[in-house]
Amino acid sequence: MDRRSFLKGASVGAAAACVSTVAEARPNLEPAPEALGMLYDSTLCIGCKACVAACKEANNMDPVISGDDLQYDSAKDLSGDTLNVIKIYKDGTAEVKDHEENGFAFEKRSCMHCVDPGCVSVCPVTAMRRDPLTGIVTHHTDACIGCRTCMGGCPYNVPQFEYDEAFGRIHKCQMCNQAGLERISKGGMTACAEVCPTGATLFGPRTMLLEEAKRRTNLKGGDTYHYPRGDISKPESFHEKDLDANYVNHVWGETEAGGTNVLHISGVSFDKLGMPPLGDRSYASQSETLQHTIYKGMALPAVALAGLTYFVKRNKDKDGEE
Ligand code: SF4
Ligand code: SF4
Ligand code: SF4
């Protein structure tokens, strides 16, 4: 076989492998059989940040002092010291809560505990893990090599690296269930849901939370609803509230990027709250399909071998000429 025929054959083989594997794209993972999560209802959130303080206490993390505020934890975003943060959307005069025009709304940021997590898929050493029963996604420092690949695999920019530490580590919300805390495996709930005074952060089985979210998003302005607090499977209490504004008729996390165990609902559209534009395919299913596409039928090695052979032959030809 001459050089031209070999290269042509290798290219055709690689292309054929790509085409055949695209047809076999791996589907999104399904929610774990006993998936646990949280429902954050922006319309109930009063921005008290009790959940931020409770999260810091549970995870033994230092306060972050921002700007001129020298007395209180005032973290503006997730970081190596902040696993949960409350942000605000504001427009114009910002007078009316849960309104897009001249209004404002709160938004909670923490790990979404994706059903098919990109961070788990890309981690080369399985330091990011998805619990097969509950779907909770945890990071394991003892296995982590600090490569930060997980940061690029997350559509929500959640894993945070301690850049200011000599031996920095990755941090993210572990749904209060990492070794040494284990609130969930001991039958409890997350610290942020337990402390939330309005039930804006609600803990429980994903299926129950999703049903609750859909009941709420079908309500209309003026309707009265009984909102549970704490754990939806055994609520500590309920409170009654008349709906001031309509919900956006969408549950964030039902399908986005394969779905999440932490669901969000809101009176303001999710793009205004800073959620990224995502399709229904998970990052993990796409990236794993691509990896398999490249390696299927030894496509990548064939192309690499073709390239190497070409350069070896060219150098040999040159040597022969000299
Ligand atoms: S939000 Fe990011 S860090 Fe959390 S599970 Fe999903 S991909 Fe992983
Ligand atoms: S589940 Fe725990 S770690 Fe995660 S945001 Fe809530 S309090 Fe923080
Ligand atoms: S504790 Fe509840 S009401 Fe307060 S900021 Fe957190 S989610 Fe909102």
Key traits:
binds iron/sulfur cluster; 3-stranded mixed β-sheet; 12 strands; 322 residues; disordered N terminus; alpha+beta; Alpha-Beta Plaits
Write up this protein:
With 322 residues, the chain is α+β, with helices and mostly antiparallel strands. The protein has two domains: 3-27 and 286-321; 36-280, Alpha-Beta Plaits (2-Layer Sandwich). Helices cover 29% and strands 16% of the residues. It is built from eight helices and twelve strands. The protein has helices at 3-22, 50-59, 118-122, 149-153, 191-195, 206-217, 283-295, 299-321; strands at 36-41, 85-90, 96-97, 103-109, 128-130, 137-139, 160-161, 170-171, 201-205, 224-229, 237-242, 262-265. Helix 1 (3-22) packs antiparallel against helix 7 (283-295) and helix 1 (3-22) runs antiparallel to helix 8. The structure holds iron/sulfur cluster (3 copies). One iron/sulfur cluster (SF4) binds next to helix 2 and helix 5. Residues 54-55, 58-59, 83-84, 110, 173-176, 190-192 line the site of one iron/sulfur cluster (SF4).
CATH class of the largest domain: Alpha Beta
Bound molecules: iron/sulfur cluster
Mean pLDDT: 86
Q: How large, in whole angstroms, is the Cα Rg?
A: 24 Å
* Beginning-to-end CA distance, first to last residue: 25 Å
Strand content: 15-25%
**Number of β-strand runs:** 12
Instruction: Say what the CATH topology of the largest domain is.
Output: Alpha-Beta Plaits
Low-confidence stretches: 1-23, 297-322
Helix/strand-derived class?
alpha+beta
What is the count of helical runs? 8
Q: Work out the helicity level.
A: 25-40%
Overall geometric form: globular
Total domain units: 2
Strand order of the largest sheet: 9-1-12
User: How does CATH name the architecture of the largest domain?
Assistant: 2-Layer Sandwich
